[in-house]
């Protein structure tokens, strides 16, 4: 199950953070088709956000065909995304790289800028 974390200082709308975190869990294989998302009440209790915000995020995910709401049962994953499982050897390499970057004195924003620059270089024109 996905555990949502809200960064109130990010400047990103709360419902967008929920959508992004759900998609990340789908890409990493942490959520799979048939899995049930937490109820709006569970998300509200864990994050102290408005229930309508959760419902808006779930509607967006449903509009994208990633989840489906089943009346009286909850919201369930319809399909996964990507092919980057959480236990991928590439993840291990990336974790080692991130640890080296931190040891070198880079902060989160430095690492994000560097990583984004490399992504842009290697995935230029990629629609995903």
UniProtKB/TrEMBL annotation:
Superkingdom: Bacteria
Keyword set, alphabetical order: DNA-binding, Transcription, Transcription regulation
DNA-binding among keywords: yes
Gene Ontology MF terms: DNA binding; DNA-binding transcription factor activity
Positions of the HTH gntR-type domain: 12-80
InterPro entries listed in its UniProt record: Tscrpt_reg_HTH_GntR, WH-like_DNA-bd_sf, WH_DNA-bd_sf
Pfam families listed in its UniProt record: GntR
The name this protein goes by in its record: GntR family transcriptional regulator
Organism annotation: Streptomyces actuosus
